[in-house]
Amino acid sequence: xxxxxxxxxxxxxxxxxxxxxxxxxxxxxxxxxxxxxxxxxxxxxxxxxxxxxxxxxxxxxxxxxxxxxxxxxxxxxxxxxxxxxxxxxxxxxxxxxxxxxxxxxxxxxxxxxxxxxxxxxxxxxxxxxxxxxxxxxxxxxxxxxxxxxxxxxxxxxxxxxxxxxxxxxxxxxxxxxxxxxxxxxxxxxxxxxxxxxxxxxxxxxxxxxxxxxxxxxxxxxxxxxxxxxxxxxxxxxxxxxxxxxxxxxxxxxxxxxxxxxxxxxxxxxxxxxxxxxxxxxxxxxxxxxxxxxxxxxxxxxxxxxxxxxxxxxxxxxxxxxxxxxxxxxxxxxxxxxxxxxxxxxxxxxxxxxxxxxxxxxxxxxxxxxxxxxxxxxxxxxxxxxxxxxxxxxxxxxxxxxxxxxxxxxxxxxxxxxxxxxxxxxxxxxxxxxxxxxxxxxxxxxxxxxxxxxxxxxxxxxxxxxxxxxxxxxxxxxxxxxxxxxxxxxxxxxxxxxxxxxxxxxxxxxxxxxxxxxxxxxxxxxxxxxxxxxxxxxxxxxxxxxxxxxxxxxxxxxxxxxxxxx
Length: 565
Known about the structure:
The protein is α+β, with helices and mostly antiparallel strands. The chain has three domains: 5-105, no CATH class; 146-271; 340-365 and 367-540, SPRY domain (Jelly Rolls), CATH 2.60.120. 38% of the residues lie in helices and 17% in strands. The protein contains ten helices and 19 strands. The chain has a six-stranded antiparallel beta sheet, with no helix packed on it. A hairpin with a 4-residue loop joins strand 7 (380-383) and strand 8. Residues 1-44, 324-352 and 533-551 have low confidence and may be disordered.
């Protein structure tokens, strides 16, 4: 490589008999040549506009610069540019289109022109840089490096256009999703208004029915009691009259009158049926008051749980989500690091990733699962929209399918668990159950460990029974000491490699077992059900209200909450 070092310095004398000293040459060019060119160009000078590069040598009204000199590091208008065309010493200077970024072409360390490129350090250098810190580096002229980069420009432009097209497509999709979500929210709000209005009318009708029932019962009971009171008053009056007559009769001396009056005074009074009437202690509404108080507590508990589910369902509505791709820009790299996000995520400490702590925190990641009918064992009967599995002695006539478990009473869920965090809860009853996650590649045919949840390297399982609790993976079982729980919460952080099982009681959660590993394939929730008995369900945080009155009260509570919102 050869470079013309004379081009990199303005202090070094040039071999020319007509050369002027540099400092004098500049001043002469500035003050002597300009007057000679003004008659020719004075009337044609173009005034500078906003954004134009200004001439560095105009002393009064700045004119628009036409060229910039890479050696002088200055910009010239047409008049002051003539010296570069007339003086031999200046004719060798490199002129380019006027630019206002001349300082970017100067080495910040040596204040010399940058005219070479160091491929070793990927930076522009001056002549002093080449002789100093970049000595022995791979250095080429800036023009040569520009030629090489120019060859790559086509590919870069193509990638850039691809990126623009992708961003436009993503913008269009996002715009469409935002509009669709707004429309959906508006439709739902209108539907909510209609439904809750109907519910309010229904509650009002029920309220009126209950009020009418109470008033009717009160009226009937009070009316009957009032009649009894009147009859009792009549009988009391009659009895007092008889009592007075009997006292008078006791003093008579007329035997015939005594005997004749005795029969009428001691005979039936006609009020004998009142003897069967007894006043009970059940005239108080204390029992009703206690029932209403108990109902209030039930409604508050149910509403708290239901509101958690409603909150979780609302948070499941989203427009965008992150994938597993490298979040850093990779358009201009030939080999993007696809594992960046996962590796950076795993290098964080467990508690710095904001793991859920309370049940409400876990419910933010709640996912709705459904059992896959193509994988279920024939002795497992599905119900409630394929969200409940019950083991029965009679075999279900499912169609043949290569993914169906042949020997073990097992079933997989349809949903893929990967990319984001997931949480689900399992209610179970019966003899024993396995609550697991597994790769889809677990074997389905046969009765060996490769087909059984937990007893191979493809699955992780929590075994629950009345007398035992254990965690099973890769043919190894670990006994756990924890009380029996009929509701198990499962938390999966796929990217972080965390799998945790919790005993759930109300809003209380007790950690049963946590696994930290590296998941290499998409996961699926899976279950094994053992023993014939009540069903085990994989419903997400779902409880049925047992009475119509409780349902109506809950609806009223939701309506009140909705009105407050």
